Amino acid sequence: MSSAPVILRLGSIRYAQEAWANVEKKYNVLAIESDMTREKFLKELKEPNGRFSTIKVISRTYESIALTGRFDEEIANALPKSVKAVCHHGAGYDQIDVEPLRKLQIQVSHTPGAVDGPTATTHVFLLLGAMRNYSIGSHNLHHGLWPGNGSGATAPIGRDPSGTVVGIIGLGGIGRAIAQRLQPFGFKRIVYHNRERLDPKLEYGCEFVSFDELLKVSDVISISIPLNKSTHHMINKEVFEKMKDGVCLVNTARGAVINEADLIEALKSGKVRTAGLDVFEFEPEVPSELIKMPQVLDLPHMGTYTVEAVKGIEEKCICNVVSYLETGRVANLVFEEKDDDWVGK
Ligand SMILES: O=CC(=O)O
């Protein structure tokens, strides 16, 4: 093994130590210190003969944003010329600005698939809990409103799947895993909206409808779209106005696909009766006004917070790193680079 490092690992690994140990038998891996700062990282990236100057592939965890900041144009332009691939842990890669890396012909990979099941399970938990007003009931119980007020301790009465239409915005890997898990509950209808209708084999019994039709007919709106420039604040005041009064909203994708200030207003007015939220626009900062609302069933981004999911994500990221080093092509290239002819050349 040459002594010059070829892989830079950003962020700590929880479960894939064995898989990394196998990679380390073949390749020299450099991991950064836990007190790294963006300023120091940028400075070191630019050192012509520094310790990063021979790196070919960078693997980065979601949490490593605390050490380096976003992988934006400034970082892209500071990278040594040797860097050819950036491999992200996670399906959502909104912490990376793909365009500047693409301009430099640097491949970007993510880990779709590994997150689908665990995120969908969290989504279904939030969806059923929000439909039944469980967080309000629990809040009321903890605040002494029971006994004395009957079942629910003054919580509004919930809805059953048999009388409920679910609208899934984004029937991709996670959206389909949600649909599969919802089917046995016997919902009245499950509709979905994507930019284009899917092959019926991939629809899992969901009906394709326009965006406006979905907003009009759904009692529960389930969000599973990636965050990018075109989906940022896609759910905003005008969109809330087109929804049914008293709709339930569930989001396990990324907080910033919803305008959070508009959501707070919609929750206050009752337009949105309950929300199930695993993600927030400025997380880990969450407005205290939102946290205090009993009608919000909320979690601190726990969609993939399982041993199996984290291990799966870590191992899939390693597959991308190794795939680049062995074939010149990452295994799970991001959508934006899919048609680029420089990839793998
Ligand atoms: O949030 C989790 C992911 O993007 O995989």
From TrEMBL:
GO molecular function per UniProt: glyoxylate reductase (NADH) activity; glyoxylate reductase (NADPH) activity; hydroxypyruvate reductase [NAD(P)H] activity; NAD binding
Domain spans labelled D-isomer specific 2-hydroxyacid dehydrogenase catalytic: 16-334
Cross-referenced Pfam families: 2-Hacid_dh, 2-Hacid_dh_C
Keywords of this entry: Oxidoreductase
Stored CDD domains: Mand_dh_like (cd12168)
Keyword match Oxidoreductase: yes
Gene3D superfamilies xrefs: NAD(P)-binding Rossmann-like Domain
TM helices/strands, residue ranges: none
BP-aspect Gene Ontology terms: glyoxylate catabolic process
Residues in D-isomer specific 2-hydroxyacid dehydrogenase NAD-binding domain copies: 125-303
Recorded GO CC terms: cytosol
Sequence similarity: Belongs to the D-isomer specific 2-hydroxyacid dehydrogenase family.
Name of the protein: D-isomer specific 2-hydroxyacid dehydrogenase NAD-binding domain-containing protein
Organism of this sequence: Henningerozyma blattae (strain ATCC 34711 / CBS 6284 / DSM 70876 / NBRC 10599 / NRRL Y-10934 / UCD 77-7) (Yeast)
UniProt gene name: TBLA0A05380
